[in-house]
């Protein structure tokens, strides 16, 4: 197996971008880090929230299919065009606290994924929603905010081009605080 690609995420204003480029890393997408506030007393959630269940090991391939539907082609080409490549490229989460993952399944298809990480002082929110359901990002963000209601500060990293998620977070008071460039370096030849 071995390592086929190295991934790097740098702040878009980092002087290290030039060094990374000189070392053979190529930028392939931008991401935005947004900060928001947890649910405050008096704020209520909409009554129409999705019926989520905990992610199971059997959800891996259906989640890959959701990733293919929701992720721009440029990113898919870099992060994984096959199930194995995608699995190998998965980040292991924020690794700063207790992590829970949920999926929204409708008619045998995964249409949404939510990961909440409850760290000491901050809650981390990761969302992947089918682009065919514009309201799903809103619902998943609301469920995530509810799950992290004990946190004053929430953080979410959003791909450039994910207008539904970015809009949902902005509507709920999240503000962009940083922009990142995702880079990749191929370390073995593709066959």
Question: What do these coordinates show?
Answer:
With 191 residues, the chain is an alpha+beta fold. It is built from six helices and eight strands. The protein has helices at 16-22, 60-70, 73-79, 83-89, 136-147, 163-171; strands at 5-11, 26-37, 52-54, 97-106, 109-119, 122-129, 153-159, 175-186. An eight-stranded mixed beta sheet has the order 1-8-2-7-6-5-4-3, with helices on both faces. The chain is globular, with a radius of gyration of 17 Å. The model has no long low-confidence stretch (mean pLDDT 88).
> Strand order, biggest sheet?
1-8-2-7-6-5-4-3
Give the mean pLDDT: 88
Number of helices: 6
* Distance between the amino and carboxyl termini: 14 Å
The Cα radius of gyration reads 17 Å
- Class by SSE composition: alpha+beta
Percent in strands: 35-45%
| Sheet having the most strands | 8 strands, mixed
Which stretches are poorly predicted, pLDDT < 50 over at least 5 residues? Answer: none
- Gross geometry: globular
Q: SSE order, as H and E?
A: EHEEHHHEEEHEHE
Percent helix, as a range, is: 25-40%
The tally of beta strands, per DSSP, is 8
List keywords for this structure.
single chain, 191 residues, alpha+beta, eight-stranded mixed β-sheet
Brief synopsis:
The chain is α+β, with helices and mostly antiparallel strands.
Task: Summarize the helices and strands and which ones pair or pack.
Elements: E1 5-11, H1 16-22, E2 26-37, E3 52-54, H2 60-70, H3 73-79, H4 83-89, E4 97-106, E5 109-119, E6 122-129, H5 136-147, E7 153-159, H6 163-171, E8 175-186
Parallel strand pairs: 6-7
Antiparallel strand pairs: 1-8, 2-7, 2-8, 3-4, 4-5, 5-6
């Amino acid at each position: 197996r071995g390592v086929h690609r190295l991934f790097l995420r740098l702040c878009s204003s980092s002087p290290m971008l030039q060094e990374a480029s000189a070392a053979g890393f190529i930028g392939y997408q931008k991401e935005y880090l947004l900060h928001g506030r947890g649910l405050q007393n008096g704020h209520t959630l909409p009554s129409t929230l999705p019926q989520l269940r905990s992610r199971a090991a059997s959800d891996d391939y259906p989640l890959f299919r959701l990733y293919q539907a929701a992720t721009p082609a440029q990113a898919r080409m870099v992060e994984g065009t096959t199930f194995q490549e995608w699995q190998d490229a998965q980040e292991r989460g924020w690794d700063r606290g207790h992590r829970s993952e949920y999926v929204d399944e409708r008619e045998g298809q995964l249409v949404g994924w939510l990961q909440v990480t409850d760290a000491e002082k901050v809650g981390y929110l990761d969302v992947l929603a089918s682009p065919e359901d514009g309201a799903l990002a809103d619902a998943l963000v609301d469920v995530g905010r509810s799950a992290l209601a004990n946190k004053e500060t929430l953080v979410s990293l959003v791909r450039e081009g994910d207008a539904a998620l970015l809009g949902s977070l902005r509507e709920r008071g999240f503000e962009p605080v940083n922009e990142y460039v995702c880079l990749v370096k191929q370390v073995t030849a593709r066959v």
